[in-house]
Design a protein that fits this description.
The protein has 367 residues and is α/β, with parallel strands linked by helices. Helices cover 62% and strands 7% of the residues. It contains 13 helices and 6 strands.
């Protein structure tokens, strides 16, 4: 008589669960439909990028004039400070819209000239916005302090360019939608799955078979992982081929994203185990799951940068695991960062995994 194979049983459970997942309308909607709808909407909206108008002042600028002080206090511009190499890198990546340089001019009708340096990665609309703001400031200074001068300064219409990749809206939005898909599937999918298996006595029937409890969990979890990684492939493929989502190093970047998605999914499934253990009935699952997912959807940089939030709120945003998934994926896909270089974000995800599964182990119920 052949010995009972735990691996064969695990694979059988995985196959059956995966088939059931594909037949579940809610799983397909949350994992495929919602993220794809957002990608399509934002993909068609614009090829632009940056949400904040960040600028930097050239260290060689003339600062002995009223124009400099006025520009430094403009609410519409956020001035960035840092080392020269970092500033140059941020400018090339489009995270800084432009570098401003105020210099004395040989033109007697305009004592000063403002030169702009930017890159192809910057949003052209933001560059135009910077020009408009500067011209507005110059106009106000002319009216109040230099009424007899044609103008105190002019903005050079020719923008100097530094090398940089084009940064599109899809490069920011798609990682957020990947996180949306992984988090919603991991929490809602696992919570409903194991709660229903327990309520319908399926788990109890498994006890009558020789398969061990660990392999039951692994079989169901493996099916969820396979399903969600398939959705990740579809989302990335549509984003890349339809909207030119950036994969800097091609297949290497894609493989790194898959590894990162796997780590994040394991974490998010842990939240689902906790919800399924805490829930008293099926109607309590959505509120409990939303307590975990909704703050992350809104505050973890899914739809817009966390830099837009008040300063006092940003430390809370940086605690959320989805924030670190979004940061790591954006760095990997657009900047070509490897998994080792993304270790600060990945390490926080791993810490969350340890904490979450320690809790899930304590409160998960089999019956």
């Amino acid at each position: 008589m052949r010995p009972y194979s735990q691996i064969t049983a695990l694979l059988a459970i995985t196959k059956a669960s995966l088939r059931a997942t594909f037949r579940s309308p809610s799983a397909v909607v949350f994992s495929f439909a919602f993220p794809l709808i957002f990608i399509l909407v934002f993909g068609f909206l614009s090829s632009g990028s940056n949400i904040n108008v960040n600028v930097v002042m050239d260290k060689n600028s003339d600062t002995t004039n009223a124009l400099y002080n006025a520009i430094k206090n403009i609410p519409g511009l956020s001035f960035v400070h840092g080392e020269a190499d970092k500033i140059k890198s941020e400018l090339a990546k489009g995270r800084i819209t432009a570098m401003l340089s105020i210099q004395k001019s040989a033109n007697t009708n305009a004592p000063y000239i403002i030169n702009l340096t930017s890159s192809e990665a910057a949003n052209p609309q933001n560059i135009q916005l910077v020009k408009s703001i500067l011209n507005s400031v110059i106009g106000k200074i002319n009216q109040t302090e230099f009424p007899n001068t044609p103008t105190i300064a002019v903005v050079n219409n020719k923008v100097q360019q530094v090398p940089g990749r084009v940064y599109r809206t899809i490069d920011f939005i798609l990682p957020g939608q990947m996180g949306f898909s992984l988090l919603s599937s991991g929490v809602f999918g696992v919570a409903f799955l194991f709660f229903n298996l327990r309520q319908q006595l399926v788990l109890k029937r498994f006890y009558a078979t020789p398969i061990r409890r660990l392999y039951i969990i692994l079989g169901e979890a493996l099916s969820r992982v396979l399903f969600q990684l398939i959705t990740a492939v579809v989302i990335i493929a549509i984003g890349h081929f339809a909207f030119k989502f950036t994969l800097v190093n091609g297949w290497v970047t894609f493989a790194s994203i898959m590894v990162l998605s796997f780590i994040a999914l394991i974490l998010f499934m842990g939240f689902g185990f906790i919800v399924s253990g805490v829930a008293k009935n099926e109607s309590t699952i959505p509120p409990l799951a939303n307590i975990i997912t909704l703050p992350q959807f809104l505050l973890a940089g899914t739809f817009f940068s966390i830099d837009n939030f008040p300063t006092w709120m940003q430390p809370f945003c940086k605690i959320l695991p989805l924030t670190h998934f979004n940061n790591a994926m954006r760095n990997i896909s657009f900047e070509g960062t490897g998994l080792l270089a993304a270790w600060p974000d990945i390490s926080i995800l791993l810490i969350w995994i340890v904490v979450v599964y320690a809790i899930a182990f304590k409160i998960f119920k089999w019956e």
